[in-house]
Amino acid sequence: MAERVSTNIGTAAIVLDRDTELMLRVKEGDGASFAILLDKHRSPVIHFLFRMVQNQAVAEELAQEVFLRVYRSRATYEPTAKFTTWLFRIATHLALNALRDGKNERLQERLDDDTGDMPVRQVSDHKPSVEQSLVYQAKMEEIRRAIAGLPEKQRAAVLMHKYEEMEYSQIAKVLGCSESAVKSLLFRAYETLRARLAHMA
Amino acid sequence: MNCPLETPESAQVLLDYCSRQLAPASTEILERHIAVCGACREFADNQRAVWQAMDAWEAAPVSADFDSRLYSRIEAQSSWWELLVRPLRQVTTRRAVPAMAMAGLLVAVGFVLERPGIVPLPPPVNGGDRAQVEQVQPEQVENALDTMDVLAEFSRQVRADTPGSKL
User: Fold this and answer.
1) Beta-carbon pairs below 8 A across chains A and B
2) What was the pLDDT predicted at B136?
3) B140 pLDDT higher than 50
4) Radius of gyration of chain A (CA)
5) Interior/surface letters B118-148, b for 16+ CB within 10 angstroms, e for the rest
6) Radius of gyration (C-alpha) of chain B in whole angstroms
7) Which residues pair with A17 in a beta bridge?
8) What are the tens digits of pLDDT across the range B76-98?
9) Are residues A175 and A159 in contact, defined by beta-carbon separation less than 8 angstroms?
10) B58: confidence class by pLDDT, cuts 50, 70, 90
């Protein structure tokens, strides 16, 4: 987000981040700018959604909806916040709805029996033994369950804080709450995770 | 410094420290405290362990056809919209205005010609009055006029019979 562009609207000078500038170009009908935004944010959005709903197929389906909404909203887009704040707000909203609708619960049984969504990690010799694979899978399962056990908002806050490296203020805007509420959410979430995962050190 | 673990608010400093978001000056002060505080050291060690464990949780790679599926959906929605809008676009605005005016005029003329017998009435005072007027037949009107003539004749005779009458 280092690249910034300044523009003047009326008498007020507004500093737009690069993504916001691209989105404004999309608004003007520039399809190439949408492709750049998609290329840049595709993986972070899908990975965030995957960790939220813990199912790759559902995550991709939701991510499709996220980018579809971005595209559909291009005509009415106003740069009132950072593009990523807006993007993750849509993603979080869809993820929380999916979780509340129970869409993910219906897939939970399948997930329990199917570890296909978990990437196969290459260990040092590139040929993990059966034992190493089992240990790795068990570890991932424990982490997955610890994250899934968090209340939805705590989970979203932790994922944005840990994996997207968002600042408290940005997480607050995404979740629609105060910065102090975010700090409280994170503190309680990490407290739970420390109790469940600290032994993995 | 006071132990950050004394209150949840100040314990946030330890989270910031573990995520390397603490300012260098504050980091230095906290590290001096951690060196002598077992509880804070344990907190920081456990938090680092959690973060290491979370680092190991890699997301699955994105499907190769993700973009093509997305663009297909965008295209499908655009096509749907195009189907609705295309007929209107083929008629340019300059042609559309007189055409629409002509169409409106034809509709208005058709409406008037379709109801030739209707003569506009003044707005009724209430619904009951209007219903009464619509139900009056020619015979009723003639009867009413005859009755009025009889009453007028009767009045004239009464006035003639009574010289002091004010009728």
Assistant:
1) 92
2) 58
3) yes
4) 19
5) eeeeeeeeeeeeeeeeeeeeeeeeeeeeeee
6) 47
7) A4
8) 887 666 666 666 655 555 566 66
9) no
10) confident
How far apart CA B56 and CA A187 sit, in angstroms, is: 21
Residue B100's pLDDT band, with cuts at 50, 70 and 90, is confident
Compare CB distances from A198 to B11, B49, B67 and report the shortest one's residue: B49
Instruction: Supply the DSSP string of chain A, one letter for each residue.
Output: ---EEEEEETTEEEEEEHHHHHHHHHHTT-HHHHHHHHHHHHHHHHHHHHHHH--HHHHHHHHHHHHHHHHHTGGG---SS-HHHHHHHHHHHHHHHHHHHTHHHHHHHHHHH--TTSPPPP-TTSS--HHHHHHHHHHHHHHHHHHHTS-HHHHHHHHHHHTS---HHHHHHHHTS-HHHHHHHHHHHHHHHHHHHGGG-
Q: What pTM was computed for the model? A: 0.68
- Rounded to whole angstroms, the Cα distance separating A1 from A22 reads 13
Q: Considering only CB atoms, which residues of chain B are within 8 Å of chain A?
A: 8-9, 11-12, 15, 19, 43, 45-54, 56-63, 66-67, 69-70, 73-74, 77
- A118, A137, A197: best to mutate for the B interface, most B CBs within 10 A: A197
Tens of pLDDT, residue by residue over A105-117, are 655 555 454 444 5
Of A126-130, B24-28, B116-120, minimum mean pLDDT range: B116-120
Amino acid at A26: V
Complex ipTM: 0.78
Q: How far apart are CA A195 and CA A169, in angstroms?
A: 27
Which residues does residue A13 pair with via DSSP β-bridges, in sequence order? A8
More confident call, B151 vs A188: A188
Give the minimum alpha-carbon distance from A101 to chain B in angstroms, rounded to a whole number: 23
Angle between helical axes of A56-72 and A103-113 (0-180°, round to 10): 140
Q: SS3 of B36, please?
A: helix
Distance from C-alpha of B13 to C-alpha of B17, rounded to nearest angstrom: 6
Inter-chain CB proximity A42 and B62 less than 8 Å = yes
A12-17 and A4-9 as β-strands: parallel, antiparallel, unpaired? antiparallel
Looking up tokens 């690069």, which residue turns up?
A18
